[in-house]
Amino acid sequence: MQASTPSPSQPVSERFYAALTDWARTDGLVWIYVFKAIVAALLALGIAMKLDLPQPRTAMTTVFIVMQPQSGPVFAKSFYRICGTLVGLVVMLALIGLFAQQPELFIVSTALWVGLCTAGAARNRNFRSYGFVLAGYTAALIGIPASQHPDTAFMSAMTRVAEISIGILCSGFVSAVLFPQYTGELLRSSVRRRFSSFVDYVCAALAGRIDRSHIEASNARFVADVVGLEANRSMAVFESPDARMRAGRLARLNNEFMTASTRFHALHQLMNRLRADGSAATVEALEPYFREIAPLFAKAGEPVLTAADASHVSKQLDDYRSMLPKRVRTTRAELEAQGAASLLDFDTATELLYRFVHEMTEYTATYASLAVDTHSREKWIARYVPKTNSIAAGVAGVRAAVVMTLLGAFWIATAWPSGTNLVLNAAATCALASSAPQPSRMATQMALGTVLASFVGMILTFGVFPHIDGFAMLCVALAPALAFGVFLTTRPKYGGCGVGYCIFLCFLAGPDNVVQYNPGSYMNDAMALVASMAVSALAFAVLLPPSTPWLRERLLADLRGGAVQACRARLTGLRNRFESGARDLMFQLSAIAGNDETQRRDTLRWLFSTLEVGNAALDLRHELTTLPAQPRNAKGTAWRVATDATLEAVSALFKRPSEARYRDALEKTERAIDAIHTVLQGLWKPVATSTADRSDSTSREARHQLQRIQSHLHFVRTALIDPQSPLAAYAGHESASQGANHAS
After folding, report:
1. Please, what is the average pLDDT of the chain?
2. pLDDT tier at 69 (50, 70, 90 boundaries)?
3. Contacts by 243-250 with C-beta closer than 8 Å and gap 24+?
4. Looking at the predicted structure, is the pLDDT value of residue 18 above 80?
5. What's the pLDDT at 356?
């Protein structure tokens, strides 16, 4: 948020108040979070000490693992942490019972479990992923120390769960009571900002005030908004009944935004292709329709921003949509009489326009419904469906299992007293860092934070603690050291260092009820922690690192696979899976690309191509399923065979792009267009000689449906020959020289 600059002409009191307000909205929130995290950590430490639990520092460590600036993430993270902890507890008790006398088998079985959980964490999203992390990490945290004393394993596990639960409860209590910050408020502002940004983008694009770089930047931001909104929605439901009452509408809003943005991009791209191809008559006929759209997003000349006023926009869009078909038919008849424009181009553009207006009507109506507590639009089944590469998730699991097995073998061979810390923290590091965009960098930062925590912890343990008495002085001594680490976690550049510092400062210097001043043990533990993170960072850098081209190629193949599914998979719920899956993969690819603009631009081009062709294929297949049962629509007819062949050829092209498959897809698309054109010529009857009876109406509807099918095929063709498409690399000289038009 950008702070406003007070004017020098304002009174001193007003300038001071404005500066204070700006500080409270920016840096003030950071310091409030630092204060809350420290209060929750010290509260958990005090309660655990009062209950005489053996390791109160575990409760304090849990606070820094769970704590977040908003209440929703704290509650969601706490919920999944408890679930993961209980699952890990059950699994570890079973493993101890089976392999307590066989350390080698115990380490191997624990490593396999942690690897499985790490793969599950990489496969899932948000705090569901965290639940998998904790199921694996808790098993190592409880089981590896308990395996040294199997006779007390059950009691040790129970006390550890109690300590973790205290940390979770204290985090949730402080987050909800002390200066609460709600995810629901952030969600409302995000929804409002996205609606406003998208309307501005549509108006600017229709007016021709936007270049390609702006288009790419806007669509990249929209992808991040879609993923972020779903993450915030899944967390906000833990906060309040109000958020739960609107959860279905927010999911629907996200889905409708994806569809509307895809429709508009397809329309905008088609118009750009027509302009580039010199189709002046067609563009001139369409321009009046586009100029009429921007005023529909205003109320009394002012932009509509709030959900309460959006119902007015929805009504205007719905009225405009109801008048479109009649106006379009009139314009088409004029173009046909002039013979100066491509009717197929016109039909394709108007079909996309109609569908875009329809999707925007739905999107705006859902946005307007958020103004009330309950609404019929809440009944929405479809949800955002993330897409993750199974091979990448499996590699993350194998990597964690290999690291744990190697370190476990080293521990058994050397009998290092701190070997338990070496192994269990390697499991935690692999699981936590595997979900980061650059896991090797994350593990390295955690190691640096742990090194710093080791020195600070040594000063506290051996220089400060022996000279203080009472819990109050303990809090005074710990607070500054903890505040530094929490502040680091709020800085994106040093977030990994802050995480490592906070967690392992508590682990090393967090006081227990019976404090042991043993410098040798302290140094061994510190070296074990740093070594586990260093080995994990090395594993991420060497064992199929996520930043290597192989993962990018796998994710790009999955992205193109969305178009393959659009051509082949069952239609039920397919559009929702297609839209959300494509954006989820785009988000992952952007994270891998980092600051590499070439990779980011190439990924966006593949996203646009996949969305354009995939949605056209879905529209085509939906039209085919609604065809009336007539002989000319039978599956064995020439035009149906040609259409099915087009879907197969396009699917093969996106599955494994090549020049031969590109030519095949383009040729079969053109054949299908020509085959439908032949059928349309047989259906056409001059209006002057037709009678206004039922058979004529049926014939007109049959023509319109075939025209829509032909339009979808024509759009696929224009997308294939678009020089801006990544598929242009597979086009020969003959294909590249073809224009956007086709004989209609």
Report:
1. 84
2. confident
3. 243/72, 243/183, 243/184, 243/187, 245/373, 245/374, 245/378, 246/370, 246/373, 246/378, 248/377, 248/378, 248/379, 248/380, 249/366, 249/369, 249/370, 249/375, 249/377, 249/378, 249/380, 250/187, 250/191, 250/370
4. no
5. 93
Assigned domain for 189 exists: yes
Mean pLDDT (whole number) for 100-128: 83
Do 176 and 188 lie in one domain? The reply is no
Q: Give the CATH number for residue 692.
A: 1.20.58
For the segment 652-670, the average pLDDT, to the nearest whole number, is 94
Give the relative orientation of helices 439-459 and 495-509 as an angle to the nearest 10 degrees: 40
Pairwise CA distance, residues 735 & 732, whole Å: 5
Distance between CA atoms of residues 601 and 645, nearest Å: 31
Please list the helix, strand and coil fractions of the chain in percent, rounded to the nearest 5, in that order.
80, 0, 20
Indicate if 158 and 260 belong to the same structural domain.
no
Closest CA to 385 of 281, 258, 532: 258
User: Of 542, 575, 605, which one is at a domain's C-terminal end?
Assistant: 542
pLDDT at position 693: 45
- At residue 375, the pLDDT reads 83
Cα dihedral sign, 681-686-690-692: positive
Amino acid at 258: M
**Backbone dihedral angles phi then psi of residue 88, each to the nearest 5 degrees:** -60, -35
Asked if residue 360 is part of any domain, the answer here is yes
Which residues lie below 8 Å from residue 27, measured CB to CB, with a gap of 6+?
none
Q: What is the DSSP string of 301-359?
A: TEE--SHHHHHHHHHHHHHHHHHHHHHHHHHHHHHHHHT-S-HHHHHHHHHHHHHHHHH
Percent of the chain scoring above 70 in pLDDT = 91
Domains held by the chain: number: 3
Q: CB–CB of 121/129 below 8 Å?
A: yes
What does the pLDDT average to over 384-398?
Answer: 83
The DSSP secondary structure of 706-728, one letter per residue, reads: HHHHHHHHHHHHHHHS-TTSGGG
Q: Number of C-alpha atoms within 13 angstroms, CB side, residue 453?
A: 33
pLDDT in tens, 502-518: 988 998 888 877 777 88
Residue range 536-582, pLDDT digits in tens: 888 888 877 766 788 888 899 999 999 999 999 999 889 989 999 99
Query: Do residue 210 and residue 177 come from a single domain?
Result: no
- Res. 390 pLDDT band, cuts 50 70 90: confident
DSSP 349-407: HHHHHHHHHHHHHHHHHHHHHTTSS--GGG-----------HHHHHHHHHHHHHHHHHH
Q: Domain range spanning residue 320?
A: 184-238+247-372
Q: Is 1 within the bounds of a domain?
A: no
Q: Are 228 and 325 contained in the same domain?
A: yes
- Tokens standing for 139? 């098993």
Does one domain contain both 149 and 46? yes
Confidence at residue 737, expressed as pLDDT on a 0 to 100 scale: 45
CA gap 649, 169 in Å, rounded: 57
366, 289: one domain: yes
Q: Identify the band that residue 615 occupies on the pLDDT scale cut at 50, 70 and 90.
A: very high
Q: Of 340, 372, 404, at which residue does a domain stop?
A: 372
pLDDT-derived band at 177 (thresholds 50, 70, 90) equals: confident
Measured in whole angstroms, the distance separating CA 304 from the mean position of its chain's CA atoms is: 27
Strand partners, 303: 298
Q: Is residue 408 part of a domain?
A: yes
Q: Which of 433, 446, 445 is nearest to 396 (CA)?
A: 433
Its pTM stands at 0.84
Do both 537 and 604 map to the same domain?
A: no
Q: Which residue has the tokens 């650059």?
A: 438
Cα 189 from chain centre: 18
Statement to judge: residues 257 and 396 lie in one domain: no
